[in-house]
Amino acid sequence: MNILVLKMGGSVLAKLPDSFYETVVALKKQNICEPVIVHGGGPEINQALKEFHVESKFVDGLRVTTKEVLDVAEMVMSGSINKKIVANLQKQGGTAIGMSGVDCKLLQAEPIDAAGKFGLVGQVKEVNVSWLETIMEHGAIPVISPISIDAAGERLNINGDMAAAAVAEALKAKLALISDIPGVMENISGKEIVHGQLTKVEIEEKIASGVIYGGMIPKVLSALKGLSGGIKESVILNGLAPEDIKKYIEGKQAGTKVVMKKEEEQHV
């Protein structure tokens, strides 16, 4: 099964054109690949937290999650956003099933930090692959909200990029992190360039120098983590230009590919 996990962050979701969903449905219908969607919901969660007067802060790009924050995050992501994505796919003639990591213990997790610095934030220990395969085999596109559950039945919030990397790893799939920019960009001699490929060492250097910052940090780190865990390939693509997804699948240059080492180094 040729599977492509598409991670859509909250900041890009509101901007995605109908043609994005049309492209995803076409991938499935034309048997080009099996799309699986994992989404976030940052801006909508922030808005809802503001409306409910619930305070939240970020540490190292991850939201510190109290029980109050988790309740709002689950309502927004597993409720509102998840169903919007399902509706958008079905509007384009696809069949989609929305679920969170809590359903069927889809994303079994444990706290990310024993010291509790991040609160109720988890990391995926196991993905219920058989349920995802059943959904795909029956002609539907899985749409996953990254709220998860631990062994004691406690809900945990998982960073969407990290959840997507874990799903791709479990499915031995390629991972496309959908952004609202063409890839990892850098200003060199007054000119904005898009890096076609970045290695682990280059990413670490660019994080240290501040070229890669904010929400792009968990994206590139998740892309790297997935590679070491069995993902075939990771790429950061522009969802506002859905033709980039098709280009990428066809092996053409699109977005920023994230690799452990450059190809010539891998053969040394």
List keywords for this structure.
eight-stranded mixed sheet, two-stranded antiparallel sheet, 268 residues, alpha/beta, 10 helices
Distance between the termini: 31 Å
Secondary-structure class: alpha/beta
Largest sheet: 8 strands, mixed
User: In one word, what is the shape?
Assistant: globular
- Provide a count of the helices: 10
Write structural notes for this entry:
By secondary structure, this protein is an alpha/beta fold. The chain is built from 10 helices and 16 strands. It has helices at 10-13, 18-29, 42-51, 67-91, 129-137, 160-171, 200-209, 216-229, 243-249, 263-266; strands spanning 3-8, 34-39, 58-59, 62-63, 96-100, 107-111, 122-127, 141-145, 147-149, 155-157, 174-179, 185-188, 191-194, 197-199, 234-238, 256-259. An 8-stranded mixed β-sheet has the order 5-8-2-1-11-15-16-14, sandwiched between helices. The chain has a two-stranded antiparallel ribbon with strand order 3-4. α3 packs across α4 and α6 (160-171) runs parallel beside α8 (216-229). The protein is globular. The model has no long low-confidence stretch (mean pLDDT 90).
